[in-house]
Amino acid sequence: MEINKPPAVSELEISILGGGKSYGESLVLHLGNNEWGVIDNCNNQKTRKPLALEYLDKLNVPYEKVVFIICTHWHQDHITRITSLFKQCPNAEFYISDALNCKEFEHYICLKSNIKSNFNAAGEFKKLVEYAQTSNRKLTRVTQDQLLYKNVFEGKDIELFTLSPNEATKKYFEKSLSNFLAEPTDLSTVAVKPEPNLQSIVSLLKAGSHTFLLGADMEVVADNDLGWKGVINSKALTNSNKSIYFKVPHHGSENGYDEAIWNKLVLKDDSIVTTTSIITGKTTLPTKQMTKTICDFSYDFYITSNPVETKTIKHPSKIQKFINFQGIKITKIPFEFGQIRFRLNIRDSSAKPTTELFGASIKVDCANNS
Ligand SMILES: [Zn+2]
């Protein structure tokens, strides 16, 4: 298990990187023949470099080989310093959700980007737009059922399709944002409604008869045209097999889960499912309950770091009193990120995929997860 070992030219790869406090999520795809794609960005907290690029360095892959970057949505844990990633990959097409293509969103970004905070996702989005304008590089807005990448390799089509956002999402977001902006609100304290997750770009990678479902942070909502219910109507799914790989949406959160969708889109038992863990406020994802639910579907469930380890340790009251009396500040050391590397040789149709773990990543012990 050598992280520096590049994939064979005929090996398709999906590496998921991230996890933990203040990390986020980034996917690195090898599309065959030394062509690469990156979905979302998060940084190494020590070096401040995009994890995706540090990984490509390890493989000796020049950044010119990155043919596309997708920013699934503009939440902090997916967009952190994505402009820097874009700058360093000179040949990459850059894709963003077309749901963000409205004057209301432009207005919102303008207002919100001026607010001072540790990290301002709207500020990063503004930076991205400004960089694209000044460098003459394009931000391509994408909708449902678009073919973003195609290559014929080893006699097989390698294709990447978008499964979202659909027209209904675009209209819904525009209207909700317009209502939101009409109310006098303090933008420094109020989060935008609806949540950016619904505008996520969910994508489907196809290599010959195999499919790989990359769920971004898409959620399940009641409306039949929005969220995962909108994704399922995607034409790109017609004549597609169930996926052997699923990047579970929204860090394994309950609001990204709908059993019917898993049954329709993902191979039961024979699939490999992965996600990044995350801490938001007091919540650590995925929860124990959701971990069990996912395990019931697939025993091959991997997380980029152990979510249990992030919980605050409770000290007995005497010890806690002593700690307080001494004025000792105990800060939790954020755990390291992990990487789950999935590879499948597309040259040989009977080849089995391999899954390798690096850093803090874990395979969930589904047999004992009750
Ligand atoms: Zn996220």
Low-confidence stretches: none
What is the CATH-assigned architecture?
Answer: 4-Layer Sandwich
- The helix/strand series, from N terminus to C terminus, equals EEEHEHHEHHEEEHEEHEHEEEHEHEEE
Question: In percent, how much strand structure appears in the residues?
Answer: 15-25%
Give the proportion of residues in helices: 10-25%
What does this entry look like structurally?
With 370 residues, the chain is an alpha/beta fold. It has a single domain (11-368), classed as Metallo-beta-lactamase, Chain A, CATH 3.60.15. Helices cover 25% and strands 24% of the residues. It is built from ten helices and 18 strands. The chain has helices spanning 51-58, 76-79, 82-88, 103-112, 121-135, 167-182, 227-231, 259-265, 288-297, 317-326; strands at residues 11-18, 25-30, 36-39, 66-71, 93-97, 139-142, 147-153, 156-162, 203-207, 210-214, 245-247, 272-275, 278-280, 283-285, 301-303, 338-345, 354-359, 362-363. The strands form three sheets. The chain has an eight-stranded mixed beta sheet. A hairpin with a 5-residue loop joins strand 2 (25-30) and strand 3. It is globular, with a radius of gyration of 20 Å. Zinc ion binds next to helix 2.
Itemize the secondary structure elements and their pairings:
Blueprint: E1 11-18, E2 25-30, E3 36-39, H1 51-58, E4 66-71, H2 76-79, H3 82-88, E5 93-97, H4 103-112, H5 121-135, E6 139-142, E7 147-153, E8 156-162, H6 167-182, E9 203-207, E10 210-214, H7 227-231, E11 245-247, H8 259-265, E12 272-275, E13 278-280, E14 283-285, H9 288-297, E15 301-303, H10 317-326, E16 338-345, E17 354-359, E18 362-363
Parallel strand pairs: 3-4, 4-5, 5-6, 10-11, 11-12, 12-15
Antiparallel strand pairs: 1-2, 1-16, 2-3, 7-8, 8-9, 9-10, 13-14, 15-18, 16-17
Helix pairs in contact: 3-5, 4-5, 4-6
The chain binds zinc ion.
Zinc ion binds at residues 25, 75, 77-78, 217, 251.
